[in-house]
Design brief:
There is one protein chain. By secondary structure, this protein is α+β, with helices and mostly antiparallel strands. The strands form five sheets. It has a six-stranded antiparallel β-sheet, with helices on both faces. A five-stranded antiparallel β-sheet has the order 5-6-10-8-9. A four-stranded mixed β-sheet has the order 1-2-4-3, with helices on one face. 46% of the residues are buried.
Length: 527
């Protein structure tokens, strides 16, 4: 139940938030106590805000009462970012405005629009937004931007940080800033000159520190959502550009994103997909590394445990059944603007991987298949441009998380984390991760991920109702942090946002100097 401070806040917002858009009763607050993660926090009050003015007033009143606010769009967060034990501000149905700009070269989106809907709007222009998380059919723009979500194809080149043009935000003091609007910038300069000056000074100080600047550049060459986007302090000079890019990946801790303008990317209409099988994980990782220089849009790695979790599902390829414990698969896709370019891409991949290529055209020429045979493959790899077959192959990859959840032992919870390594370290890092699962007795763990980006996801099912299990899990997380940070200097969070699980390890990954910069960023935006 709400305490005295929360009751005071509720009484204040009751003046402008109708009862239908506010929940304080235990049943409805319980319903908002989870997101797509394994955490539960019951909010004291849930508020559905309909516009910027309401968000501004809510944040102002929360600040006056010393209460934290958490923002939620679709609630698809995998790491506990969309739950709170205080105030939960929900942006949904009333935040679905959009504007297509410059013949589809840009798009303005409000936070309640689902990512796939944005791509539907851009499809007539042959464009799409850059971020492509696996949850794009459910995740909303607010969470996609606030977590700097990426996915199978966008890597580090087309995520929200790289493709944001401007952001309209509501800050903790209730001020509204549109970094893409000259009048808004001028008004903000007049009212928040001190904040802009502090951002400018912080960026200059970071740039003058050669060691820190080098570390920031190196850390963001691979996927990294651990902590704040420190690369904004190195990549930009204008405080407004710095502010906009710091909002990306800030997980709602610096302000509310009410609009974002994306620079869109091409959406090739022609695709060919292949499932490549390898006898050992090092062969798959070696091939993925070579693919970085080839016209490959996606290369999804799946270990033997991953394949086993879906091999008995209807329609799964026969080649994934009954394979050896060391077998690893890569689901590979190449994309092009026309068929001739697609065929050329497949040929370039075959040549780059030093494989023998043959082509056949079944079904009266309606679809095409290219066979690749190479020393690293345990089975011939067949690229197909058949849409149904390609979609079916992607079901292998996209069915991993729900399949793992479906077979978990009663009373356990499904935990998913994502880490990243420089791709030259992907093979030994994957083997080390498998060894850690074995060391700590997590026999049901599966590993999959975006191999081109050196990005691994791992899923397992601990029982947090057992105190011994909690201790075991703590030891496992300490070992994970040591392996990722100390052995490989990788990212403890690659694309799901820092979240609650890795928050205690941010300073370990980045070091004291960078962590103090993050603390200063928080103070500048939300003192």
């Amino acid at each position: 139940m709400p305490d005295t401070t929360h009751r005071r806040f509720i009484e204040a917002i009751d003046a402008f938030i109708p009862e239908a858009r506010m929940a304080t009763d235990p049943l409805r607050t319980l319903a908002y106590g989870t997101d797509a993660s394994f955490y539960r926090l019951i909010p004291k009050v849930v508020v559905r805000a309909d516009d910027e003015n309401e968000v501004s007033r809510i944040l102002t009143l929360a600040r006056q009462n010393g209460l934290p606010v958490t923002f939620r769009a679709a609630g698809t967060s995998l790491s506990g970012q969309a739950i709170s034990d205080s105030i939960l501000l929900v942006a949904g149905a009333s935040w679905q405005g959009f504007e297509i700009l410059a013949e589809g070269q840009k798009i303005r989106l409000e936070p309640g629009i689902i990512g796939a809907r944005a791509n539907q709007l851009l499809a007539p222009f042959g464009r799409k937004i850059g971020p492509d998380p696996a949850s794009i059919n459910a995740a909303m723009i607010g969470g996609i931007a606030a977590n700097n979500a990426s996915g199978m194809c966008c890597g580090t080149a087309q995520n929200s940080y790289q493709t944001v043009d401007s952001i309209r935000m509501v800050l903790a003091d209730g001020t509204i800033l549109d970094t893409g609007d000259g009048r808004s910038r001028s008004a903000f300069k007049a009212s928040h000159a001190g904040m802009l000056q502090r951002l400018d000074e912080l960026a200059r100080r970071v740039k003058s520190d050669a060691a820190l600047t080098e570390r920031i550049g190196r850390k963001f060459k691979i996927k990294n959502t651990t902590g704040y986007s420190l690369n904004a302090l190195v990549d930009f000079d204008d405080p407004f550009d710095i502010a906009a890019h710091l909002m990306i990946g800030s997980e709602g801790t610096l302000g509310f994103i009410s609009q974002i303008v994306y620079r869109t990317v091409p959406s090739p209409a022609f695709k060919a997909t292949a499932l490549m099988m390898f006898a050992h994980i090092d062969g798959a990782c070696r091939t993925a590394r070579r693919m970085q220089a080839l016209p490959v849009a996606a290369a999804e790695l799946m270990d033997r445990a991953s394949l086993a979790s879906v091999e008995d599902k209807p329609g799964m390829p026969a080649m994934i059944r009954g394979v050896s414990p060391t077998t690893t698969a890569l689901l590979v896709e190449t994309q092009a603007v026309d068929f001739a370019s697609l065929a050329a891409n497949v040929a370039a991949i075959a040549d780059g991987l030093e494989t023998r290529l043959t082509r056949r055209t079944p079904d009266g020429g309606r679809t095409h298949a290219w066979h690749l045979e190479g020393a690293d493959f345990s089975h011939p790899a067949i690229f197909t441009d058949d849409t149904d077959r390609g979609d079916h192959l992607w079901k292998v990859r996209k069915g991993l998380l729900p399949s793992a959840g479906a077979v978990r032992r009663l009373g356990t919870t499904v935990l998913i984390e994502d880490i990243a390594f420089p791709i030259h370290s992907l093979a030994p890092a994957t083997l080390d991760l498998q060894a850690l699962f074995d060391k700590h007795g997590y026999r049901d763990a599966i590993i999959f991920g975006h191999a081109l980006a050196g990005n691994l996801h791992f899923v397992f099912s601990p029982d947090f109702g057992d105190s011994d299990e909690v201790e075991r899990y703590a030891r496992f997380m300490d070992d994970i942090a040591h392996m990722v940070v100390d052995t490989y200097d990788g990212s403890l969070k690659a694309e799901h946002g820092t979240g609650r699980n890795m928050a205690p390890f941010v300073e370990k990954e980045w070091g004291r100097d960078a962590y103090q910069v993050m603390q200063e960023i928080k103070q500048i935006f939300d003192p």
